[in-house]
Structures are given as structure tokens and as C-alpha cells.
């Protein structure tokens, strides 16, 4: 039950108590009215008790209204902060998986603070769900503790995505989108679709037949790459073994950062497809003499 619901419940209980008091006062002061015998004295006493009761009731209603408004504003603020934290988690892990690696100097520095933010603002089930995601990411490093950067294999990626789905399901309830988690069958189907999508992304891009319209060669920390854009508008990136790379956009992100090409995550990488941003990066590299 939310704080706002608790406040409303307390308000209803207090209203019931006031009603009981009003009835008790009415019954209890009946002998007094009979003793006075009506007339002006009776009218004065009656109106006095009525005014006092109305004042008490009005004060109560105003106080409760203020409490509910304050609680509502607090709830809205907490909701906004939760949305921000949860969304940052999804976007950060998305970028991590797209890059295919996790770094001690980047992601591993951020994750402890993400967990602390969740402890401060999330409920227990959300914290427990993210703890599993956190542990899965830590386990990637446990196998290679001496490395500063560790690559994800497909099993790691699949495991993290499944746990992230469970975390999303808990966020759904915590944010009040629904009183219950997604139906088990529907959630299972969604997880299967995500798994299939991951398997498809892990498959190498198919070779493209036809002339090349734009191309550029570039060297970055990860190696030497040959970027090609075909007349069919497909983008293919070849490594130093002349093998087609699996994730073109992840490499394009790294090229953009290392060569300071000026593209930003949103909208350049988020809203543009690989064909569009790939062509723009090839043109930029050509301008630099690549």
C-alpha cells in the first residue's frame, strides 16, 4: 500500500470516528436540552455545539487535504526519480551489451552507485532483481580479474538480458503501471522473443554483392577496420582478417569517440539506422584523409 493510500485510509477512519463522536454528543446532551426546556437558551446551546462541531470538522478536512496534497507531490517526485534511475539502468546496460564489453574504468565504476540509488528509492523486490543483474555482470569479471576490459560472450549476454527482463517486470509493479507483474505466459513469450533477437544479432552480417559507393579504412584501439557502403546502401565493416564484424553500430560508436567526429548518442546513434550513420561516418573519415 502506498503512502497516499495509507493517508486516505487514515482520513476515512478519522471521519468515522467524528461521526461516532457526533452521535454520542447528540445522545449525551439530550438530557441537557430537556432540562433547559428549549427557548432561547436551548437555541444558543444548540447553535454553539453545531458551530464547534463544524469548526472541528472543517479544520480536520483542511488538514487532511493538505496532507494528501503534500503526499501526492512527494509521490510524484519519487515516481519521477524512480523513472530516471530505472531508465538510466536500461540505457547503460544497453550500451554495454551493444559494445560487447565491460570496463573497470567505466561500467564497473558506475554500478555500485546505481545499486546505492536503488537502495535509497526502490522497493525490496526491485533491489533484489537488480542484484541478480549486478552479480551476473560481476561474474563476467570474475573469470578474468586481471583484465581492464572483458568481452561478453553470448551466454553472458543472454543471462544478463533474461535477468534484466525480470528487473523490468519488478519495475512495472513498483512504478504502479500495474498491480501485478506481467502474466507468466506473456512474460515467457517476451523473453523468448528477446532471446531470438539476441541470437539473430549474434549472427554475422551476410556478405553483400555489388559495387561499393563509399569506403574508408580506420585504426582504433580495437584494431584495424575497413568500412564499406554498397550501392544497395548496406554497411559492412571488415576487421584486419577481412571478416565481417557482427555489430557494425558498436564499432561506429568507438570510431566516433576515438576520432572525435562529433556525433552524439541521441539522435545520431539512437534514431538513425546503421546505413545512415555509417555513411555519415565514412564521409567524415574521408574528409580526415582516411
Can you describe this structure?
With 290 residues, the chain is mainly alpha-helical. 68% of the residues lie in helices and 9% in strands. The chain has 3 domains: 73 residues; 103 residues, no CATH class; 76 residues, no CATH class. It contains 10 helices and 5 strands. Helix 1 packs antiparallel against helix 3, helix 6 packs antiparallel against helix 7 and helix 8 packs parallel to helix 10. The model has no long low-confidence stretch (mean pLDDT 77).
Please summarize what this structure is.
By secondary structure, this protein is mainly alpha-helical. The chain has helices at residues 3-28, 30-36, 39-99, 107-121, 124-142, 154-174, 184-202, 248-258, 265-269, 274-287; strands spanning 101-103, 149-151, 212-220, 223-230, 235-238.
Proportion of β residues? 5-15%
Net shape: elongated
Percent in helix? 55-70%
Tell me the radius of gyration: 32 Å
Number of individual domains: 3
SSE class: mainly alpha
Largest pleated sheet: 3 strands, antiparallel
Q: Low-confidence runs (pLDDT<50, min 5 residues)?
A: none
Number of strands: 5
What order do the strands of the largest sheet run in, or round the barrel if closed? 3-4-5
